Amino acid sequence: MPKFSVLIIEDEKNIQTFMSKVLKRHDYRVLCADNGEQGLEIIRSQCPDIILLDLGLPDMDGSAIITDIRTWTSTPVIVISARTAEQEKVAALDMGADDYITKPFGTSELLARIRASLRHSNRLNTDSPLYIRPYRHGEMTLDFSRRLLTIGTEPIHLTPIEYKIVAYLAQNSGKVITYASILSSVWGPYADDDNKILRVNMANIRRKIEKDPAQPKYIFTEVGVGYRMAEDEEE
Amino acid sequence: MLAAATGISFGFFLLGNKNVANITVIYILALILTAWRTDGYLYGFISALFCVIAVNYFFSYPYFKFNFFLDGYPVTFIGMLAITVITSTTTTALKRQRRTVAEREKALAEADREKLRANLLRAVSHDLRTPLTSIIGSSSSFLENYTELTDEERTELISNIKEDSQWLLNMVENLLTVTRINDTSADKVKKSPEVVEEVVSEAIQRLKKRLPDIQIRVNMPNDFLMISMDPTLIEQVLINLLENAFVHSGTAGPIDLIICNASDQVIFTVRDYGVGISEKRLPYIFEGQQTSSENADGHKGIGIGLSICKTIIQAHGGQITARNHSLNPDGSPHSGNSAESLKAYVTSAPRSPGGAEFTFTLPKEKEDMKNA
Predict the structure, then answer these.
(1) A83 to A86, A139, B148, B308: CA distances (angstroms)
(2) Pairing relationship of beta strands B255-261 and A50-54 according to DSSP bridges
(3) Does the distance separating the beta carbons of A223 and B194 come in below 8 Å?
(4) Does B63 lie at the interface with A, CB-CB under 8 angstroms?
(5) What is the pLDDT of residues B315-326, one digit of tens each?
(6) Does position B268 have pLDDT exceeding 90, yes or no?
(7) Paired residues of B261 in beta bridges
(8) What is the distance of C-alpha A168 from the center of its chain?
(9) What are the residue ranges of CATH 3.40.50.2300 in chain A?
(10) Eight-class DSSP state of B55
């Protein structure tokens, strides 16, 4: 299997070193850029499989890179950002970033994010019929072809809207999905901006699938941003 | 005001109601309102004069002429004047009082803020230095004596570095939350309606990343609960309280997080079944002042965590309290000596308190009531 190449755009040398060490150990080919200009150059010349992007760069606003490359490529971009900046995260995701990771992060978290984004982009690229394969995590199985959600052996009854939400999250499992993205995918592009309806539905779903809604196993909340479904286990 | 009164009186007058008493009452009302709206006696006095003249000129026989020799006229005059003066005095005094109270409150808030700032600074300069010393020391000893160290020693040094940096991170996040509280504007925090269970679950998730062994039992109503808050700040409060309960209770047993939905507020309770809080410290627990000598468990101090909790909850318009409770983990009253009847995770030995309990409330806003 050819190695996936990862581009790290990060001006902080220590963080760059730590990330590239981890990624090299896990068989990724690592490219590094210290600033935005250099990063764009590498993206254009080497076409990395995935880009890790720090938003606070010395020479340009990181979000400018996202808008720039989104005009010609769908290479997944994972934004590295600080915890308190929800607005920044949502803006980056709306601009076309695939996911974000919050500083400081551990190695397992970093690898999981990269895996999830790569898997999703591969699905898009190869048009493979992976959607047909059921989603599995822990006791949960979601069979897309039969529109059936089971926990253990017990089928869970979901309303059509609830099913749409869960299916959309499961198809993007491991990745954060913004409120706006779910709203437009489930209710259509003219959906109301108010995400209360989504949150009510989500609360109902949680009560159906989680044993303890306050300590969920399958669908996690990223407050102020959206939801993230646990990574698909089969792969 | 007076013009309005004259207008209304004319209305009465033209409608055929020529009762001078009614008109006088309207003028008196106008007088009181005038005194209430203005400062000092001057306005009141002038308006009283105007009223008396107006009543005389417009509304008492002979109409549109002055007649100062009506029966009881001096009584009306003196009466009106007296009312004005008294009202003016009262309202002026009231206003002055209100202003002083507001000023005093502001000064108090200012002092509170200053105190928090001072505590923060103290924490920064003192508490941050400890873990940094350990990090620098461990890492340089790792680098300098690499070849002489055994594998276990290396692991130990590195784990110490990790532990201390995580402690530092927690500290920094606490400090950061303070910058999200805006003291100057009326809305101290940026509130948005949030689903309680989502905030709670994210807080627990983040805490579990750091403390994988922590056990938390969440007990909350099954209803959909949405209240206005700054979710990042409330998460920080929950994390601080739960972590405190885990680290300082002296037991590894589960911690209860109980959420109650009251009519005008939501009540959060964090209850541990550990050693409780010493009576001596209880009154000052939110002050953020803690001398190291009192740290019986040898752990780094509670530091500023609790005083930040208090600041956050107060900025939300809620309240936070701490007490010792006397319950067993299963909810039965703590009897003090039936250790064998307790579940296995309760350490042992009869204790008088059942553990520490922190409660905070978040008020529901109008919007939240509508959502409920």
Answers:
(1) 7, 31, 40, 18
(2) unpaired
(3) yes
(4) no
(5) 888 999 988 887
(6) yes
(7) B266
(8) 12
(9) 4-126
(10) I
pLDDT score, position A120: 79
List residues in chain A touching B: CB distance below 8 A. Answer: 83-84, 86, 104, 106, 196, 199-200, 202-203, 206-207, 212-216, 220-224
CA distances from B237 to B54, B270, B314 (A): 64, 11, 12
Are B176 and A84 in contact by the 8 Å Cβ rule? The answer is: yes
HEC readout, A135-183: EEECCEEEECCCCEEEECCEEECCCHHHHHHHHHHHHCCCCEEEHHHHH
- The answer to whether the Cβ–Cβ distance between A220 and B202 falls below 8 Å is yes
Give the residues across from A135 on adjacent strands: A142
- Tally C-beta pairs within 8 A across A and B: 59
- The DSSP letter of residue B322 is E
Q: Please say whether the beta carbons of B285 and B277 come within 8 A.
A: yes
The Cα A211–Cα A190 span in angstroms is: 34
Question: What is the DSSP code (8-state) at residue B186?
Answer: S
ipTM, interface predicted TM-score of the complex: 0.83
Domain residue ranges in chain B: 2-97, 128-179, 186-371
- Distance from C-alpha of B281 to C-alpha of B284, rounded to nearest angstrom: 5
DSSP code of residue B58: I
| Start-to-end Cα distance in chain B | 43
Reply yes or no on whether the pLDDT at B117 is more than 80: no
Class of B186-371 in CATH: alpha beta
pLDDT of residue B72: 64
Radius of gyration of chain A (CA): 18
B69 backbone dihedrals φ, ψ, rounded to 5°:
-115, 25
For the beta carbon of residue B51, count every other beta carbon within 10 angstroms: 27
List Cβ neighbours of B109 (8 Å cut-off, separation of 6 or more). Answer: B183
pTM: 0.71
**Residue corresponding to tokens 């009869």:** B350
Query: pLDDT-based confidence at A213, cuts 50/70/90?
Result: confident
Closest CA to B196 of B227, B218, B223: B227
Output the CATH code of domain A129-229.
1.10.10.10
* A4-126: CATH, from 3.40.50.300, 3.40.50.2300, 3.60.21.70, 3.40.910.10: 3.40.50.2300
| Closest chain A residue to the Cα of B233, Cα to Cα | A84
